[in-house]
């Protein structure tokens, strides 16, 4: 290890801070899903879980005390299973303990099968100002194969309910490369989505993740060549419709990029509360960047939240890890990030990343830009190869 690699980070100022809240329950576990989600069973323990979230947050408060929180994301699972009254109480508890900035982006993930106009209006009144709607497809056969609890008609009704409830900022999740899907079917799904005019569209390829039913029993998926053509044709159609492809799977109308996810990709800080939630926090006093998480299973989380056993796997990131993690996130962004952000958000001098940067430029994967770290078109296509250049030797 060189002297530079052994030197710890030094922060002139701390990165922006976001908060993630995990709600681990869903109606039914989808066969492709590798998130920390569990079928709810007979009753959702809303009050007990909200109390656990508050205990969890209070234990972490000393690490973030006084820092402004720029965004809040309530994900899952299916957070829209929570009653609007529970969401209202949760947001009140969070605001009482954290410095949420006045225009904080506050997102809640929703399943089309769990919302209606009245419920969405109550969620908006509670303080949710952005929704992320997990539609995935508008084809009934595809939805059945994906194990979704909604059909295409329910998805359209949910989208109408979102706009009727007054949400101006919302995301639609759409997948391609589905079992039995051809290029025309993928484009038809996208055209249906675009007709709904979502301000933000997450358009991503179905992948077979370990520890999922699809991984154990793979369905018939399109060939790689077909997937590449799907990707290109869909990207062209999104661009024609005025969407900016600002991240690997994220497209937004101008001004509607997701601030919470941008903070992840720009290697900002985030606190995570809830079952299995993760955190990454910088500390200027100790010049460290710490990662830790929370008990993964809901039962364990409910029992341990707010206790010494409620924080698991704490570790400080070594400088080589900081370089890798920064680049792994930042290079997902189509326009990359300003080079100055590397030092601001890792606390390390630019020289710490120079080996990988020089090799990326030499291979044509990184642009030779003195102000930005930006992947080339080739680098975006072979992102894993680009990121591998920053793996510690």
What does this structure look like?
Strands 9-10-8-7-6-5-4-1-11 form a nine-stranded mixed β-sheet, with helices on both faces. It has a three-stranded antiparallel β-sheet with strand order 12-13-14, with no helix packed on it. It has a two-stranded parallel ribbon with strand order 2-3. The radius of gyration is 21 Å and the shape is globular. Helix content is 39%, strand content 22%. Helix 3 packs parallel to helix 4 (117-126) and helix 4 crosses helix 6. The longest helix is centred in the first third of the chain and has 19 residues, at 46-64. Residues 1-5 have low confidence and may be disordered. The protein is built from 16 helices and 16 strands. The chain folds into two domains: 13-262, TIM Barrel (Alpha-Beta Barrel); 319-393, Orthogonal Bundle (Arc Repressor Mutant, subunit A). With 393 residues, the protein is α/β, with parallel strands linked by helices. The protein has helices spanning 3-6, 46-64, 84-97, 117-126, 140-145, 152-164, 183-195, 213-216, 224-240, 259-265, 298-304, 319-330, 339-346, 354-362, 377-381, 383-388; strands spanning 17-23, 25-26, 38-39, 68-76, 99-110, 130-136, 170-176, 200-205, 244-247, 250-252, 269-274, 278-283, 288-293, 312-316, 337-338, 372-373. It starts with a helix and ends in a 5-residue tail after the last helix.
Structure characteristics:
three-stranded antiparallel β-sheet; 393 residues; Arc Repressor Mutant, subunit A; alpha/beta; 16 helices; 22% strand; TIM Barrel; 2 domains; 39% helix
């Amino acid at each position: 290890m060189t002297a530079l690699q052994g030197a710890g980070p030094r922060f002139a100022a701390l990165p922006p801070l976001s908060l993630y809240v995990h709600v681990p329950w869903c109606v039914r576990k989808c066969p492709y899903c590798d998130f920390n989600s569990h079928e709810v069973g007979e009753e959702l323990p809303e009050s007990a879980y909200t109390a656990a979230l508050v205990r969890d947050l209070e234990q972490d408060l000393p690490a973030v005390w006084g820092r402004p929180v720029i965004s809040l994301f309530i994900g899952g699972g299916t957070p829209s299973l929570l009653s609007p009254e529970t969401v209202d109480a949760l947001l009140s508890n969070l605001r009482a303990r954290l410095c949420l900035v006045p225009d904080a982006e506050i997102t809640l993930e929703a399943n089309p099968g769990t919302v209606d106009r009245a419920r969405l209006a109550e969620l908006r009144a509670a303080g949710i100002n952005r929704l992320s709607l997990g539609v995935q497809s508008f084809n009934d056969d595809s939805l059945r194969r994906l194990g979704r609890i909604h059909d295409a008609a329910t998805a359209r009704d949910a989208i109408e309910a979102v706009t009727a409830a007054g949400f101006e900022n919302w995301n639609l999740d759409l997948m391609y490369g589905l079992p039995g899907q051809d290029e025309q079917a993928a484009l038809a799904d996208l055209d249906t989505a675009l007709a709904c005019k979502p301000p933000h569209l997450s358009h991503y390829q179905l992948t077979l993740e370990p520890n999922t039913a699809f991984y154990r029993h793979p369905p018939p998926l399109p060939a790689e060549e077909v997937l590449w053509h799907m990707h290109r044709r869909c990207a062209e159609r999104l661009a024609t419709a005025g969407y900016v492809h600002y991240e690997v799977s994220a497209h937004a109308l101008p001004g509607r990029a997701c601030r919470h996810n941008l903070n992840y990709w720009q290697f900002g800080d985030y606190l995570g509360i809830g079952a299995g939630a993760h955190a990454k926090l910088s500390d200027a006093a100790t010049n460290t960047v710490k990662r830790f998480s929370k008990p993964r299973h809901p039962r364990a989380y409910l029992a341990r939240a707010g206790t010494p056993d409620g924080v698991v796997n704490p570790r400080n990131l070594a400088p080589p890890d900081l370089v890798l993690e920064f680049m792994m996130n930042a290079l997902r962004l189509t326009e990359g990030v300003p080079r100055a952000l590397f030092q601001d958000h890792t606390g390390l001098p630019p020289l710490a990343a120079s080996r990988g940067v020089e090799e990326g430029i030499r291979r044509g994967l990184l642009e030779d830009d003195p102000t930005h770290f930006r992947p080339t078109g080739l680098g975006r296509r072979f992102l894993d190869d680009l990121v591998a250049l920053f793996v510690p030797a």
